[in-house]
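Ops channel
N.P.: pipeline sanity check, posting one input/output pair.
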């Protein structure tokens, strides 16, 4: 009985401690400012084996904005030439540090901690392991200021010496950031949230967000996503989740599109949404989380 009580107390204390943990502000800001498409000139390093005139990176939010995911690809005359790396950046509460993991097209995996230094510079140290078992340590120093990202990569020797490799200056693709409608889903006006949830779960969907007591849920099956809403919408609604609903709203209004509902468009940051109706009466929700 005593052991049981001690176990319960330990469980409760652990839960309380975990509930008090939060992602540091600097890390959240870094993720927020990273969202979007970034382009850099590669003419300095361009050659026969590396024909790309530019490189591009796309970053977007992960589930519930607790992490971000990205990908790196080559560009030739503006055309994408395949994806070389996929990334995930997240906060490791167990280690109390930021982590960046990346996965190469050849199977190489790199992972390591990110730290903030003076002047908003971040420093990343990663161990890379290739499919043949070879290991290497690489570092990155990055500074993001006024929409310009400067990155420098380093090879790190066994004795910890950093040797500079390459530097790039990345610029945000403002047109993509402002007009990209983001992910698409259907928001369904359902009669009974629990009945609908059970139905779509039978089709392989899983809940990724929501609150059944508040009568809404977001479900995903692979790349397909739907929203179930009881008593919130008069009819099924086309839904887009862009990175910048405010600028899309401004552009829509400037082009003569009637906006029937707005929320947060007058604010500088945070959630924002608006609703419009297409010529056939289909409601469209543009919702920035």
């Amino acid at each position: 009985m005593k052991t049981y009580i001690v176990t319960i107390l330990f469980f409760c204390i652990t839960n309380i401690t975990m509930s008090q943990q939060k992602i540091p502000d600097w890390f959240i800001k870094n993720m927020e400012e990273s969202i979007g498409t970034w382009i850099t000139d590669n003419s300095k390093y361009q050659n026969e084996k590396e024909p790309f005139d530019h490189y591009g990176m796309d970053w977007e939010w992960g589930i519930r904005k607790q992490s971000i995911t990205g990908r790196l690809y080559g560009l030739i005359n503006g055309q994408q030439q395949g994806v070389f790396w996929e990334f995930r950046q997240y906060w490791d509460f167990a280690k109390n540090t930021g982590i960046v993991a990346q996965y190469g097209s050849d199977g190489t995996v790199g992972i390591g901690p990110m730290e903030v230094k003076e002047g908003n510079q971040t420093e990343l140290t990663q161990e890379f392991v290739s499919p043949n078992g070879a290991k290497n340590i690489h570092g990155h120093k990055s500074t993001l200021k006024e929409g310009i990202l400067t990155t420098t990569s380093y090879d790190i020797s066994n004795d910890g010496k950093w040797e500079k490799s390459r530097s790039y200056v990345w610029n945000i693709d403002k047109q993509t950031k402002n007009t990209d409608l983001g992910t698409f889903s259907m928001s369904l006006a359902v009669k009974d949230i629990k009945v609908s949830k059970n139905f779509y779960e039978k089709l392989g969907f899983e809940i990724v967000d929501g609150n059944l007591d508040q009568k809404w849920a977001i479900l995903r099956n692979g790349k397909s996503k739907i929203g179930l809403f009881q008593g919130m919408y008069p009819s099924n609604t086309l839904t887009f989740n862009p990175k910048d609903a405010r600028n899309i709203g401004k552009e829509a209004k400037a082009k003569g599109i009637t906006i029937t509902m707005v929320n947060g468009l007058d604010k500088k940051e945070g959630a924002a949404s608006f609703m419009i109706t297409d010529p056939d009466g289909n409601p469209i929700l543009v919702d920035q989380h």
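N.P.: looks fine end to end. Helices lie at 2-20, 25-34, 174-179, 193-202, 245-254.
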